[in-house]
Structures are given as C-alpha cells and as structure tokens.
Design brief:
single chain; Rossmann fold; disordered C terminus; alpha/beta; 2 domains; 8-stranded mixed β-sheet; 14 strands
Amino acid sequence: MRVCHVVYSYVPFDPRVQREVSSLRLRGHEVDIVCLRDLGQPSVEDLEHVRIHRVPLRAIRGGMFRYAYQYATFFLLASLLLLRLQLQRRFNVVHVHSLPDFQIFCALPSKAFGASLILDMHEAMPEILAARFELSMNHPLAKVACALEALSGLIADRVLTVNSTIARLLEARGIDGRKLLVVMNSTDRPPSVSASPDDLLDRMALAGRTVIVYAGGVDPERDLETVVRAAAILSKSRPVSLLIFGKGPESYREELRGMVRNAPPMLDARIGDWIPPAKAVELVSLTDVGLVPYRRNPLTEIAMPNKVFEYAAAGKPMVVANLSTLRGLWESSALFYEPGDELDLARKMERIVSERDLAMRLVRSATAVYERHTWAHYEAELIHLYESLIQERRMGSSTFTS
C-alpha cells in the first residue's frame, strides 16, 4: 500500500502525524509526506524510510489575513506537488490533515486517479476561528467555516477526528456519521529515561525543590500567565522550579520572562525554546505535577491534547483546566482548576504535592483511563480503516460500510 500524508505543519514535529505514519511503516507500507519547510530543513528528505517533500513555506502566527495567505499558498503548492507525486507514485490513499479542512480539495486529482481520501480533523475549524479572532459561532466567517467543513467531509471517503465531542459536532453539522472514526491523540508508553531522576535533578540543580515541567505550545491560549502566577503563589511556602519549553511567539515568551523577574525568591522559573521529544520525556519524568493548562474558549472546550495522555502514561498526577471535554474523560483522574484563576491552580498543585495518597489515587485512576485509550487500540482501528478502503477500491465501489 502506498500512502501520502498532507499536513500543514512541520515534520518531524506533529506527534499525531508521526504516530500514524509510524504505524504504516511498521507494517511495511510505503509512505510519503507533503508538509511545510522550516528553516534549515531540506526540500526532500528520507527520514526513517519515509519520503518527506516540503513546500517552501513557513507557518507564522498572525492576523486573519496572514492565516488566509498561508493557507492559500500551502494549498496551491501542495496541490501541484501532490499531483506530480500521484502520477509518479500512484498512491492508494491520500491522508489529508486539517487545519485547514479545505486542504482535502488538493487531493481531488488523486481521487480521480483511484486514491481513497481520508480527512483527519485535528481540530474543529469553526471553533478555532471563533477562538483565535474572538468571534461568535453565529458570525458569518464561522458559518462559512461550517459550510466548508461539511463540504470537505462530503469529499472525503472517511473522516477522522480526535474525540467523540468533535465527532458529534461534525455529524450535527452535516457529515455522515458512518464516515466518522474517532482516533484520539493517545500515546505509547513513554520511552525509558537514560539517566536516573536523581542524577537529572542534581545536574539541573533541581534537587530538594518542587518541580513543575510544561513542554508544549507556548502561546496565550495555554494560560501560561496563570501558571506562572500560580507557581509564584506556591513558592511562598516551598522552593519551586517551573520549567516551560515549547514553540510559540518570542514576544509571548518574553512576556512570561518579564513576569518571573518580579517573582518570589523561592521561585526558579526557566522559559525556554522547543526541545526535542527525547529531552522533553526526560524533563517530564521529573515533574511533580502533570499540568494541562488552557484558557476557556470555544476551541479549548472541545480539546483533548496529547499532553494529558503523556502525563497519564508517565504516571504523573494531573491538574487540568476545567473544560467540558477534558473533564468528561478524566473526571475522577485529575484535579481541575478554573482557567485564569491562579489561586485555584495554586491550591490544586499544593494538594498534589502535599497529599501523597491523593496523588497516588489520581495516578491509578488516570492509568485505568489511559489503558482504555492506548494508541495500540486506535492504531488497530486506523490500519483496519486503510485496509477496508483499499478493499473497497478493489471491488470497484466507493461506498462505505455501515
């Protein structure tokens, strides 16, 4: 089987894409990826037996027109590249990742040449527009996004999404429920850490301190200002080290650094850049609190990030933003804080680090939830989906089973 993934992101970076591609490669299938090109990356690269084709475009956060320009440019460049690759490689399946939803249109020529199309909705486009630009869901732009979402789902042979909340939204907005498959952003068990935790704590001057590690997106949506203020409150009663690493606007990183300059003396806060996954695993192994912070908006209310599964797999007691979809799955497996409320967050972190029995109970409960949603479970469903699409094409049918 020959599969091409199309993703408006960088490779290697997006963990969902990496897991899906790895699942195919481990079963001997041929995989190509069309993606963005970051600084210093080659236009074509073979990485772990996957052929990566990068278009000359970087994603830069900005206003509405900046996003529109970048999406349109990637769509045009990826469409031309995918057509050339389709003629050369004869893909059986083209797997298109959203955002944006309409990226699926670039695969229409591939469908004409016999490829099946999968649309993988990492997020809900109408909600992300409402969140990014502070629009109501009744705004004309949100309504256009809903219409494009439904049309994109109509073109696709199957539609993947990251949780059942979004799946229900998609069906309510016109996508045939028989096309939908939930593939959560779960994870494998974390790789072992080469150095012992005590060695790492000594090496990083963290011994004897309460350690809070956050490695992920560094932007206002992650509610990291609240995290810094909460860590400062916690540090009034104990020495605290707060380590924040990830991709995001440098201006926001500087804003966080400015906040910590006036922090209490017992707070050691380090605001750094993105770190490789292996290093992130090392640092997360040190954290006393698995922190999943978010602001409240239409997008985060339906979010289920990788991070919550990573903490659960690593056996870390969690404090999670009190948002409906997160609470729905992890209700008895984490403590929940109100987004934007640093006092509430500080109280919940204090309970985690001071109440050992509570922390152990949360870990046991989170482990049980995680075991029901391991990547192995979703991987099996995903591979079955690919195989069923191939079988349908071989039978000369474009219909899908009920």
